[in-house]
Amino acid sequence: MRKGLLVLAVLAVVATACAPKSSTATSAAAGDCTPDTMNLHTPGQLTIATGNPAYKPWYGGESVPDSDWKSGKYTGDPHTGDGYESAFAYALAEQLGFTTDQVTWLGIPFGKSFAPGPKDFDFAMQQISITPQRAKAVDFSDGYYDVNQALIADNGSPAIGVTTLAGLKDLKLGAPVGTTSLQVIQDEIQPNVEPGVYPDLDTALKDLHNGQLDGVVVDFPDAFYGYADQIVGQFPQLSSGQEQFGLAFEKGNPFIPCVNEAIATLQSNGTLKQLDNQWLETDASVPVFS
Amino acid sequence: MAQSGPGPNVYFPPGGESDPRMPPGSGDRWPKILGGRDANARNVWVAVASTVIFFGFLAIVVVRSPGWPAIKESFFNGAEFHASFPVILQKFVRNIFIFCIAEVLVLILALFIAVLRSLPGPVFTPLRIMAAAYTDLFRGVPTILVIFLLGYGMPALELQGIPDSDYLWGILALTLVYSAYVAEVYRAGIQSVHPSQVAAARSLGLSRWQSMRHVVLPQAVRRVIPPLLNDFIGLQKDSALVFVLGVVDALGQAQIIQQGDFNFTPFVALSLIFIAITIPQARFVDWLIARDQRKRQSSAV
Q1: Structure pTM?
Q2: B86 vs B264: CA distance, rounded Å
């Protein structure tokens, strides 16, 4: 029994010794917005997290050598600076005083962008919609893109030609999990048929092409990327207000004011508008569901 | 015949649970969790004290760690739990539906494969090869890949008469994978029946099939019930994988809430549901094994 006690005590001591890892968030005074003084995950590097695969039109181009990302028909490589978010990231980095070489990309599953604890990146950029609920877990930057939702479908689907939200109620629609697209189906359409919910856009599209879905709801700019035969229509503004994408930071990250300042500059000098025109198609003639 | 369980000639001593050769209080040969090998009052007291101190200490270390408030907020969030638990539980009915059907199909398909693989005689070589290839293939491919391949591949064939239900393909994929495991479990049971019993049955005039059906299988199946239930617990947990096909099961529902609210509490809620259904089964398996052991001990007296 003496020995047993000893073992227990040693175990307990080991547990204490390894448990209290000191918090990594060192405070940098707000306003110190140069790469040398900013609170960064890796000093001198801007580490940006996004999903892998990274989808067009947000990420494009041919993948660069040694990249974890492989560009394909629907996917791109964040390193290229092609696609709205990739181009925005490099414009933001430049505004903050980083060179192109100082931008590091990290591929993460979506859940890691909001998991508690120290993050291994400075912020996540993955078409993340800002909501009050989510803001309890992460701190968002100001919005960098105003987004609407649209419905796409293949030829022959009963969704083709529908012009009202009520007309969509009896259709089998789908969307990736955790997206505003799914919220639109649930809250704005309130369908009689249970929507299909998928781990990612890719799997939702496969079921669309297999004929198991009548339509898929996507971010409006995604609708132009040939994911399906037709754009059925776009959704009116959400009842909760204009949806915006924001960058997700660890709670309390002192880096955020610097980023917000940079986003405001990119907004006022017309860069965001220009990126929008360059990388995202929008077509005002797409009918809005009534 | 001693190993074959209770028969008409097996003597059960009254109060057969206690073996006079064992120390008092030890129903089976392994130390009880509480109190170690021999559980008298003092030992139980020491066990309780040591347990309380040890886990209490661990709990204090965890709760006082710098990250605990953040962990509590995103994994053990009371409001989030209250909101998500009923919704997830409701969707768990779909998991139950999926694994119940799959379990029945597995029992049948696996037995069929095990019998094929256990067929004697050179004529049956192709069947044995097929059965072996089947188990090799489906034990080798990760379950989630089988689900992906069937769930997205088969409907894309657009063949007449091939249904496109995600449930169907999910259940079928689980059935195929787990039948491979369970077939091996059955086969182990079949091989554990001594060949002399088949010889005896054959000498009594039973055909090969009859001796398999009436002599080998009843004993084999009874013996493999514990490992078989273990595989079923695995199958029940893997029913959550069907979510990748777009079936909104309990995991799908948990993930919808998790990614909508950026909070992981729904995953904890779902884990509790899974634990609540698997622990009773695990204890049931323990009980079956203990009962089997007692029977063997008492029949060996």
Answers
A1: 0.76
A2: 16
pLDDT in tens, B119-168: 878 888 999 999 999 999 999 999 999 998 998 888 777 777 777 678 89
Distance from CA of A100 to the nearest CA of B (A): 31
A191 Cβ contact partners less than 8 Å away, ≥ 6 residues apart:
A168, A169, A170, A171, A173, A185
User: Candidates 1.10.3720.10, 3.30.420.280, 3.90.1150.10, 2.70.20.10; correct CATH number of B78-300?
Assistant: 1.10.3720.10
Spell out the residues 6+ positions from residue B298 whose beta carbon is closer than 8 angstroms to its own.
B10, B11, B12, B13, B16, B19
- The complex's ipTM works out to 0.72
Alpha carbon distance B48, B29 (integer Å)? 22
Tokens of A150: 């649209």
Q: Which residues of B touch A209 (CB under 8 A)?
A: 156
Strands A173-176 and A196-198: parallel
- The CA-atom distances, in angstroms, between A73 and each of A176, A225, B39 are 19, 10, 68
Number of H helices, E strands in chain B: 11, 0
| Owner of token pair 């409907």 | B155
- Judged by DSSP in three states, B275 sits in helix
Residues of A within 8 A of B263 (CB-CB) are 133, 136-137
